[in-house]
Amino acid sequence: MVSVISISRADFIEKLNDIAAAVEEEYGVSLRFVEILSRRRSFIAGCENDISCSPPERIEINERFGIVSDRWNDMPLTVQDAILRQLAEIVTAYEQR
Q1: Best CA proximity match to 74, nearest among 32, 21, 33, 24
Q2: Would you say residue 36 lies in a domain?
Q3: pTM score, whole prediction
Q4: Digits of tens for pLDDT over the chain (97 positions)?
Q5: 82 with 53: CB under 8 angstroms?
Q6: 3 within some domain
Q7: Do residues 97 and 8 lie in contact, with contact meaning Cβ atoms separated by under 8 Å?
Q8: Number of structural domains, the chain?
């Protein structure tokens, strides 16, 4: 079993912003990280620019956190999977604080 270290909210948001910036630079895909509150999504980190006019894609990281993206499916599946694995680890570390 892998030991997970907890992280503060500030570190959590910084890590999410770093991932969003890297994805936007490498793939031109905007990511917004959100907290899922029933049917509502509350922005917490990521790209602050407007998402394109096309309907945004919603991707769940877990029951509490997700991604809203303008072009998530434009990235290769292997990249999507790697991002989701990394985010799952970060979210787990944050939730264990």
Answers
A1: 24
A2: yes
A3: 0.85
A4: 455 577 899 999 999 999 999 999 999 999 999 999 988 899 999 987 765 666 789 999 999 999 999 899 999 999 999 999 999 999 999 998 7
A5: no
A6: no
A7: yes
A8: 1
